[in-house]
Every structure is written in C-alpha cells, then in structure tokens.
Design a protein that fits this description.
The structure holds two protein chains of two kinds. By secondary structure, chain A is mainly α. Chain A has 15 helices and no strands. The chains are: A mainly alpha, B mainly alpha. At the A-B interface, helix 1, helix 2, helix 5, helix 6 and helix 7 of A face helix 2, helix 6, helix 7, helix 9 and helix 11 of B.
Chain lengths: 282, 308
C-alpha cells in the first residue's frame, strides 16, 4: 500500500494525521458549511450584519418551511423527478440493447458504431443547441418535460452505451456460446442470460444518470421556461429572484435542490463509484 | 429436394428467414432504437449546426446564406477573443484538478477508523449540481457577507471582490469549478490506488525507493488508467463550462468571464438578439477545439482495443 500505512509510522505522525483529517475536511467543505449555517439563521441576523456569528435564533423549520410552502419549489422538485426518472429508464434500456449488440456480436462496423456513441458523448452541447431547440419547437415539445426527456435519453445513450458495452465485453463469453449450442434464441440469451448478469452495471448507471440529469442546467434553460416544466436547477434562479438578498431562504432553497442526488449518492455509494470509474479502473 | 419426393426428407424443415440470419440481424435490431435516437438528436444536429453557421438567421424568419461571413466577423470580435482566451485559461487551470485529486487521494489512502466517511465527504462536492456549487461560491466570495473576506480579514488581508474584478473573476469561477472536479479525480485515484500491485511496492522498498521516487517511478505509472479518465473528464468539463459562469457572473464584469459556450448562448438565445448563425459559428469553433481531444481519446481507446 502506498503511502506507508499509518500504523507503521511514528506515533507522533499518527497523532498529527488523526488531527489533520477533520481539519482538512472542514477546510474542504467550508463554503458548504457556510451555506448550511446561513440556512438556519433568522432574517434579522443578515440585516444586523451578524453573518458569521452564532445564529441569534434557530430557524431551521421556519426557513425550510417557507421554501416548501411559499414558493414554486415543490413544483420544480416534482418536475425534476418527472424528468429524471423517465430519462434514467429510457437511457438505461436503450443502452442495454445497444451495449449487448456491440459487446457480443462481431461485425465489421461494430467499432465504428461504438466510436460514434463515444465521440457523440464527448461533443460540447453547444453545437447541438440551435438545432435541438429548433427540432423541439417543430415537434411542439418546447417547454414540455417530454421534450427535455427525449433529448436527455438520446444524449445519455452515448455514455451509457460506452459503459454497457465495456461491461458486457468483460462477461465470460462461454456463457453465450453455451446458450447458443443449446439452440436458445438470441433475444432469450439477452433476456435470461445477459440481463441478470448486468444488474450491477444497471444499478451503477441508474444512480449516475440520475445525478447527471437532476443536475443538468444548460438544457433546462434552453428547452424550458416557467414553473410548469422547469426542473429545480433552472427554477432555483427564479426562486432566488423571488427572495433576493434573503440569504437564509436562498441557502435553504439550494440545499433542498441539492438533496436528492446527495441522498442517492450516500445510499448507493458503491454503485455510484463503480459507475464513475467507468469500470475501467478496477 | 422438390424433384424427388420419394426420398425421405432428412433436412430439417425450412426455417424462417429470421432464424437463418439470426446472428447477423439481431445486433441491428438491438442497435436500432439507440442509433435512431442518437442520430436524430446528436449526429444530425452537429451537421445542421455546421450548415447554420453559414447562414444569417434569427431563428424565425427566412435564413440567408452568407458563406463564411460569420467566421470573418468572429476574427474581429473582441468578445470572441476574450472568450477564446478564457477557454484556454479554463483548460489549463482546470487540469490542476488532476494533481489536486491525486494529492487528496494519497492523503486519504489509509485504513484508520472512519476513513470511509471521510472519503465520501471529500467526494461529496461532486454530487452537487454546478448551479448549487455556483451559488455556494458566489456567496462565499461576497464582498461583505462572504466567508472568504471574513477569513481574509482575520489575517489582516482584503477585502477583495473576486467576482467584481475583471482580472480575477475568471480565476474565481475556475476555483469554484475545481472544487467538484478535484473530488472526481480524487475518487478515480482512490480506486486506482487500490489496484496498485503491493509486490512492486515491496520490491521498490527493497531497492530503497521512498517518498517522491516511489510515487513517480512506481505508483504513477500504475495509475495510468485512472489518469487517462481523469484527463478525459477534466478536459470535457473545462470546455463545457457554462453553468458556473451563468450563475456566478452571467459573463460579467464587462463580459470578461465569458467562454465560448457562454458567448454562443448569449448570441443565439439571450436578450442580445437571436443570431443563430453567428452562435452556431462560435459553437463550430468550440467543436473543432474539442475534436482535437476527441480524436486523441478515440485513438487511445482504439490502440487499447487492438492490444487486447
């Protein structure tokens, strides 16, 4: 193991390390801790210039209550869910199919189709912006959740296919050959042999795509406007103009908006990290 | 066999066309939905954007073909020049996330109690939306209320108005972007460090390799896959930077924090007018920059595929 395990070092360095850890963590999360403190302060602290002192009263419930009852926040949160969940299902489904095709079968254009997905996934979004917005307008899907979902599915399919294909490549190919010898239809091999083996990959991708889509801002701004379809990332800006300079409420709002992917991460950590490392760093 | 019905038929009954070509056809059936979606929403729009960049178009009326005029105009556009330079700064300084991530990973690669929680909490900023990161940091930087100036004040420095200063603002935003990106690189390296061959480390120790030498000659070469992914995601992240700029400064002060992706959006979709053609031309430039990296990434992946 590198660096040298702490147990094998001098006692004094062990103690230094133990005390350095929490200190480093606090430094690292300082901006976030500041926002968390803001969000439980009463408004009066800000008018009196008590930014960094202790809160003069504990207003957690009042502030977060305001966010949920006195703004469009619940609406935006619901929109985010309605955009994120179908996208995850769609992108994972499409990429399971495509990943199976590219991972199992050998045909001449295989690698080129694979590279098309990979390259498309690396493209800067901005080159898609004008045509995709136009397409969405033409289909009458501008400012709808459906329009956003369809685009997200298509774009995420690139990354997901890359991931799935590499995962399927690493499965033991003998399994598929054995099934073929038994005369099992190809789609049955997919459904009964490969899909059960892909469960970890599906879990990892779902968590990852959930986070990516929940956190998307660019496409939310390009393809939607207004509380009836905007997700929370875009909604937070109008929330902030509603509560201009009310830092306690803006902080509480941001924390609420950030919470679902954070929960997802802490609950599904193992899958999340497996997804991030693309399974390539084992 | 049709000519001699008397002979007993030993060949199996004629199978359907699909059955006979199953292995050749199935991959295409499986690929069809993904390819259709991807071609419709990603590949075709890239081509369309390139076409639109040769037109003068407000997004509603008739588009007028003007050849390379948009690109000629770009050459004299000082805002474009600023954006291009800022993109370069982003590319360069964003890469600090890689050594930064490696450093934190080395720091955390221990087995003391509670280290798992520390690792997750260090990684935590990456899970936040860039919008939230942007808000958090713009409050952190606030001239009066912000914590940064609070801390600077304690040591007798400041106050500084990071986002209000044209020369400092871009670096302030990049610093905010580095926060989640470093966390990402850290997790890549933590997973990579797990896979480092302990025997090689032991062998290195016997040869008296320690500290920096050990890191440079034994550890880092073995972390190559992690470094590659870190490099890919950081470059992409740098060139896609949009959310942070839009949230933290909206391009200001005096347009000094614009990057290509943001300037493109401004030209095509904001109150500055709907110049779709001009916006598309900016996007094409960004795409060409990206293409250099995409080609390199694909080439590396291809040589690895061949090696298998």
């Amino acid at each position: 193991m590198f660096p040298t395990p702490i147990e094998k070092t001098s006692r004094s360095w062990q103690l230094t390390y133990q005390s350095l850890l929490p200190l480093a963590l606090i430094m690292w999360l300082l901006p976030l801790i500041a926002v968390a403190i803001f969000s439980i302060k009463p408004a009066v602290d800000f008018t009196q210039g008590n930014y960094w002192g202790l809160p003069s009263s504990f207003e957690l419930f009042a502030n977060y209550g305001q966010v949920f009852t006195n703004s469009d926040m619940p609406r935006y949160m619901l929109n985010s869910v309605l955009i994120t969940v179908p996208t995850v299902i769609g992108a994972v489904a499409l990429s399971c199919l495509a990943g199976f095709a590219l991972g199992i079968y050998r045909f001449r254009s295989n690698i080129w189709i694979f590279f098309m997905f990979v390259a498309g996934n690396f493209v800067p979004f901005q080159i898609l912006m004008v045509p995709v917005r136009d397409l969405t307008l033409d289909m009458g899907l501008y400012n709808t959740k459906t329009g956003l979902v369809l685009f997200h599915i298509a774009f995420q399919t690139g990354f997901c296919t890359l991931f799935m294909r590499n995962f399927i490549r690493a499965l033991p190919f003998e399994l598929i050959e054995a099934a073929r010898v038994e005369g099992i239809a190809e789609w049955k091999i997919f459904w009964y042999v490969v899909i059960p083996l892909m469960k970890p990959a599906i879990a990892a991708l779902s968590v990852l795509i959930f986070t990516f889509i929940w956190n998307d801002y660019f496409w939310a701004v390009v393809l939607t406007q207004g509380p009836e379809s905007q997700p929370v990332t875009a909604g937070i800006t109008s929330f902030n103009s509603q509560f201009r300079a009310a830092y306690h409420l803006m902080s509480a709002g941001s924390i609420v908006a950030a919470l679902p992917p954070v929960l997802m991460f802490f609950l599904m950590q193992k899958h999340f990290i497996a997804g991030l490392t693309l399974g390539a760093v084992k | 066999m049709t000519s001699s019905p008397a002979v007993p038929d030993t060949t199996p009954p004629q199978r359907s066309w699909y059955k006979r070509n199953e292995i050749a056809v199935t991959p295409w059936l499986f690929l069809a939905p993904a390819i259709l979606f991807f071609a419709f929403y990603v590949i075709w729009p890239i081509y369309q954007s390139i076409v639109i960049s040769f037109y003068d178009w407000d997004g509603l009326g008739e588009a007028r073909f003007i050849g390379v005029e948009n690109y000629v105009e770009l050459m004299d556009d000082s805002a474009f020049e600023v954006s291009l330079w800022n993109n370069l700064k982003w590319l360069l300084f964003y890469l600090l996330a890689i050594p930064g991530g490696l450093f934190i990973a080395l720091f955390l690669n221990q087995t003391v109690t509670g280290i798992r929680i520390y690792k997750s909490l260090f990684f935590f900023p990456f899970v936040l939306s860039q919008v939230v990161v942007g808000l958090v940091f713009s409050w952190f930087y606030l001239p009066n209320e912000g914590l940064l100036n609070g801390v600077l004040g304690l040591v007798g420095l400041g106050p500084v108005n990071v986002l209000g200063d044209p020369t400092m603002a871009t670096y302030g935003i990049i610093a905010a972007g580095l926060w989640p990106q470093t966390a990402y690189c850290m997790i890549l390296y933590l997973t990579g460090l797990n896979a480092v061959d302990p025997e090689q480390i032991e062998a290195g120790r016997l040869d008296n390799a320690k500290g920096w030498k050990m890191l440079w000659y034994i550890i880092i070469p073995q972390l190559k896959p992690a470094t590659f992914i870190a490099f890919v995601v950081t470059i992409i992240g740098a060139l896609r930077s949009f959310d942070l700029i839009s949230i933290m400064t909206n391009g200001g002060p005096f347009g000094q924090t614009r990057v290509l992706s943001f300037y493109m959006f401004e030209k095509a979709l904001s109150e500055y007018g709907f110049r779709m053609g001009y916006g598309a031309a900016i996007a094409v430039v960004l795409f060409l920059i990206m293409l250099v990296f995409i080609a390199y990434f694909l080439w590396s992946m291809w040589s690895e595929e061949k090696g298998r």
